[in-house]
């Protein structure tokens, strides 16, 4: 490779790398980070999104680790069609009511008007129900445990990249069971899988709980959700698991003969996590300088920047490649940055892209057999700059997995501390309004959808869930004074 000619920091490069500070305007920050970190771009059709290689690499890591968990809990992957006859959606009354405003409908194909319009799937309960009805005849056929990785379309009036796009990628699990007990066990198992994945892979500690009736999935009996807190105190619903009862079994005739030869309806579940989770990563961990990626989802966990001019750069680059090879042997995802850019440009770029660990390797380091290591967050000096640590190559290589694990725990603890600082038990309306402006309010609530609507109108906050853990409590509804439902405080927040 050729040596860079006096790598001056051009002002153009600098402005390309800067983002609006999060503290100034989180919306502008969010868009800047997505653009400058090259995660995604708007597609030509409104509400669509092009996921660029760096963003897609995060999705692939997420997908792989989530898929492993689905397989470990007994599920198999399958694929169902993109087009669904419109009449299918009408078979489950609540389902069609919930999804009707968001549907994309195909009326023409092959130059002719279709006899029956086709819906582009917003979710697949209906077509899966049709197939389950064919596949299930006896109790011996149950349970059926299926997952599908696909794209769905829900028409978005106010699209936001990763958070709300007209087309998005996700997985949808669909299962059928002999009875409520078995189906509820599955619903809660997958709810647990999402919660564990969010904490142990995405480093986001979630509030776990059940949706109130007004916030349930259209057609579900019970909906369980994990809700993450973003850096502006808003909630982001990150994964949901639904017990569908026999609603879809009745609509699609999913029946089976039980052991006594009596015809029974199966109990079904569905559960999903989507590319929204990338939005959650950005908003839960990021800072003024850009992305902060948790190591288990970072496409590059370590970036090595060789430093030097002329022949010296050739030598440090060769050593960087050697060290990278050693790190890869330890299972670390590592990139050597050989671009014809200044070290300063590269440091800023990788900082913005949220790479957990940065290694510098200059000619003097090479002579001394050491490298210089800095981590993205959590180890700053008094001026807020990342501390630099000089390590031997052996120390760097042998200790890297442990460092990445510690960094993961640091991000969890940081997110947990932020969430706890921005959560409060609230007992009067004035304090409620102030609390939901910057965090989660735990309040007693009557559970009435009309009362929820009044609260939302006034404060833009919605009930996120009734937490599955926490002290039991009852009293008067914070908004209307009627007796509280659920026996526990409800978490209210503004949500993405
Ligand atoms: Zn009320």
Describe the protein's architecture and organization:
The chain is of the alpha+beta class and 496 residues long. It folds into three domains: 28-285, BirA Bifunctional Protein, domain 2 (2-Layer Sandwich); 302-403, Anticodon-binding domain (Rossmann fold, 3-Layer(aba) Sandwich), CATH 3.40.50; 423-493, C-terminal domain of ProRS (Translation Initiation Factor IF3, 2-Layer Sandwich), CATH 3.30.110. Helix content is 36%, strand content 25%. The chain has 15 helices and 23 strands. The protein has helices spanning 11-17, 26-36, 53-72, 86-90, 93-99, 125-135, 180-200, 247-252, 276-285, 311-329, 343-352, 363-368, 393-421, 429-436, 449-459; strands at residues 40-42, 49-51, 76-77, 83-85, 104-109, 112-120, 144-153, 167-177, 207-210, 222-229, 235-243, 255-257, 263-265, 267-274, 302-306, 334-336, 357-361, 370-375, 389-392, 423-425, 440-443, 462-467, 490-493. The strands form five sheets. Strands 3-7-8-14-11-10-9-22-23-21-20 form an eleven-stranded mixed β-sheet, with helices on both faces. It is globular. The two termini are 47 Å apart. It binds zinc ion.
């Amino acid at each position: 490779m050729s040596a860079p000619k006096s790598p001056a920091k051009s002002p153009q490069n600098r402005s390309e790398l800067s983002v609006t500070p999060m503290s100034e305007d989180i919306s502008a920050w969010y868009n800047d980070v997505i653009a400058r970190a090259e995660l995604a771009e708007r597609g030509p059709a409104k509400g669509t999104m092009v996921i660029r290689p760096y963003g897609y690499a995060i999705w692939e890591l997420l997908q792989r680790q989530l898929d492993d968990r689905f397989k470990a809990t007994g599920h198999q992957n399958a694929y169902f069609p993109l087009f669904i006859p419109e009449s299918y959606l009408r078979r489950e009354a609540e389902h069609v009511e919930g999804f009707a405003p968001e549907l994309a409908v195909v009326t023409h194909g092959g130059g002719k008007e279709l006899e029956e319009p086709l819906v582009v799937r917003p979710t697949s309960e209906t077509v899966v129900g049709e197939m389950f009805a064919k596949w299930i005849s006896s109790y011996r056929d149950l349970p059926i445990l299926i997952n599908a990785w696909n794209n769905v379309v829900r028409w978005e009036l106010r699209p936001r990249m990763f958070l709300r796009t007209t087309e998005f990628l996700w997985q949808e699990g669909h299962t059928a069971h002999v009875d409520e007990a078995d189906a509820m066990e599955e619903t809660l198992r997958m709810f647990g899988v999402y919660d564990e994945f969010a904490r142990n892979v995405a480093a986001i500690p979630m509030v776990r709980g059940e949706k109130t009736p007004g916030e349930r999935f259209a057609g579900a009996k019970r909906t369980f959700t994990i809700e993450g807190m973003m850096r502006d105190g808003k909630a982001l619903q990150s994964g949901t698991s639904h017990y569908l009862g026999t609603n879809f079994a009745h609509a699609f005739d999913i029946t089976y003969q039980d052991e006594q030869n009596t015809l029974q309806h199966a109990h079904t579940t569905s559960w999903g996590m989507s590319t929204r989770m990338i939005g959650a990563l950005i908003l839960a961990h990021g800072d003024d300088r850009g992305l902060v990626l948790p190591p288990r989802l970072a496409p590059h966990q370590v970036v090595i920047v060789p430093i030097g001019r002329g022949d010296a750069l050739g030598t440090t680059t060769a050593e960087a490649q050697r060290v990278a090879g050693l790190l890869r042997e330890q299972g670390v995802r590592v990139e050597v940055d050989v671009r014809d850019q200044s070290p300063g440009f590269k440091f800023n770029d990788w900082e913005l892209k949220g790479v957990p660990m940065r290694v510098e390797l200059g000619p003097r380091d090479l002579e001394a057999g050491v490298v210089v290591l800095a981590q993205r967050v959590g180890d700053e000096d008094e001026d807020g700059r990342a501390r630099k640590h000089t390590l031997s190559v052996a120390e760097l290589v042998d200790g890297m997995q442990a460092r990445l694990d510690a960094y993961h725990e640091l991000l969890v603890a940081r997110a947990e501390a932020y969430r706890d600082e921005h959560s409060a038990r609230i007992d009067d309306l004035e304090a409620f309004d102030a609390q939901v402006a910057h965090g989660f309010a735990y309040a007693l609530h009557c559970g009435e959808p009309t009362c929820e609507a009044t609260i939302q109108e006034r404060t833009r906050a919605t009930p996120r869930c009734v937490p599955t853990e926490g002290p039991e409590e009852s009293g008067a509804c914070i908004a209307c004074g009627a007796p509280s439902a659920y026996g526990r405080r409800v978490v209210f927040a503004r949500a993405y």
